[in-house]
């Protein structure tokens, strides 16, 4: 020993996120894994999430449906029934037992769906009745057939806001530390926000204020239900997933952040513009720093980050925390590997969305001696 202390890498430094004391800044990004048969979380998720838990680490659970109209993929979990809430409890308990902080990402796919996923074979709901034509969905690469959506009537919108509120209440009942509203990737909330999709003429369409009204009402309802200090939101103003682009993403992002500040929510999780298109190619088209500077709470970035990028983002104060998706999927001990600068397991895209309870799910190896 030389006696010289090597400073901890920025991702390894502690961070106080509201009431939560994080011991490092490597966050598990929400990852849909399609292993929640019939929309009910399964016991194999106990092992999956606890493998990815570190003491003082933040985990965000996979996108979780708020109602029976919220799904568009096979076997994604929900949180609207008693059975689902009960099924989440042992998973949340396992994360807490290892000292993790666990948020539930709550979700409605809107038109990124088809009649096969809907109750009584009805049409999916959306801000619009425009059919989604691309075969590429959200964060995945699976091919799907979409059904022409049904445009929500103005008087129905409060019911959907209420579904989000109840889902947040249920998440707390299940033991989660908070919720992340899924306001990204072309799903229902973005179908209202983005002008490529929203063609409404009521108070939920047209101006920026009107297009963001649905998102803001959801934030307000959830803040009133569970408290602002347990609420985060993920947004992707720059992304164009599922034909949900915006003509002025910068103005949209800044307007949303200003609204979030009014409610004092805990965090804003921003999909980096460089993953504006799906795939491995990173295009740095826009700059999220103005939003980072504007937002008063914790700022999480995600999208194509390596260990080095994450360390620089924190060191340069471009983010408080960095959420890792594919690396964390394949490396259950990612924070440890980053700390040691150890090699990473490669992720296998073929097993991202298969329904096997082990393969590509809980069988990624740990560094020797750290499991
Ligand atoms: C298999 C898979 C599933 C995903 N599921 C979700 C999801 O449920 N909710 C969400 O907001 N993002 C989802 N994403 C996006 C990730 O949260 C993350 O933002 C994205 O993968 C970029 O981070 P990365 O480059 O570190 O993988 C998913 C990504 C992958 C690869």
UniProtKB/TrEMBL annotation:
Task: Recite the UniProt keywords alphabetically.
Answer: Flavoprotein, FMN, NADP, Oxidoreductase
Q: Any signal peptide, and if so, which residues?
A: none
Parts forming coiled coils: none
Q: Which cofactor does it need?
A: FMN
Q: Look up the domain of life of the source.
A: Eukaryota
Which GO molecular function terms does the record list?
12-oxophytodienoate reductase activity; FMN binding
Residues in NADH:flavin oxidoreductase/NADH oxidase N-terminal domain copies: 13-343
Q: Give the family this protein belongs to, as stated in its UniProt record.
A: Belongs to the NADH:flavin oxidoreductase/NADH oxidase family.
What is the protein name stated in its UniProt record? Answer: 12-oxophytodienoate reductase 2-like
């Amino acid at each position: 020993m030389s006696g010289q202390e090597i400073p901890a890498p920025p991702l390894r430094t502690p961070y106080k996120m509201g009431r939560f004391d994080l011991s490092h800044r490597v966050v598990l990004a929400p990852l849909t894994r399609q292993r929640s048969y019939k929309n009910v979380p399964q016991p194999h998720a106990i092992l999956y999430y606890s493998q990815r838990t570190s003491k003082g680490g933040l985990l965000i659970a996979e996108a979780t449906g708020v109602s029976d109209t919220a799904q568009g993929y096979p076997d994604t979990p929900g949180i609207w029934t008693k059975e689902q809430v009960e099924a989440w409890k042992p998973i949340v308990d396992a994360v807490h037992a290892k000292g993790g902080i666990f948020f539930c990402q709550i979700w409605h796919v809107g038109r990124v769906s088809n009649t096969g996923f809907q109750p009584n074979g009805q049409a999916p709901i959306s801000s619009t009745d425009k059919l989604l034509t691309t075969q590429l969905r959200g964060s995945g690469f699976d091919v799907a057939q979409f059904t022409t959506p049904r445009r929500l009537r103005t008087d129905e919108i409060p019911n959907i806001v209420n579904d989000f509120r109840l889902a947040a209440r249920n998440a707390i009942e299940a033991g989660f530390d908070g919720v992340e509203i899924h306001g990204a990737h072309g799903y229902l909330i973005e179908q209202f926000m983005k002008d490529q999709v929203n063609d409404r003429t009521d108070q939920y369409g047209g101006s920026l204020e009107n297009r963001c009204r649905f998102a803001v009402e959801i934030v307000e309802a959830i803040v009133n239900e569970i408290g602002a200090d347990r609420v985060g939101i993920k947004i992707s103003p720059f992304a164009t997933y599922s034909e949900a682009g915006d003509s002025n993403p910068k103005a949209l992002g800044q307007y949303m952040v200003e609204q979030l500040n009014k409610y004092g929510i805990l965090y804003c999780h921003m999909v980096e513009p460089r993953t504006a298109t799906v795939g491995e190619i990173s295009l740095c088209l826009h700059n999220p720093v103005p939003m980072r500077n504007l937002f008063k709470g914790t700022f999480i970035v995600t999208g194509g980050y390596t260990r080095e990028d994450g360390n620089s983002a924190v060191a340069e104060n471009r983010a408080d925390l960095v959420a890792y998706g594919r690396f964390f999927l394949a490396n259950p001990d990612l924070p440890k590997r980053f700390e040691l600068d150890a090699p990473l397991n490669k992720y296998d895209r073929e097993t991202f969305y298969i329904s096997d309870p082990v393969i590509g799910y809980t069988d990624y190896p740990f560094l020797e001696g750290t499991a």
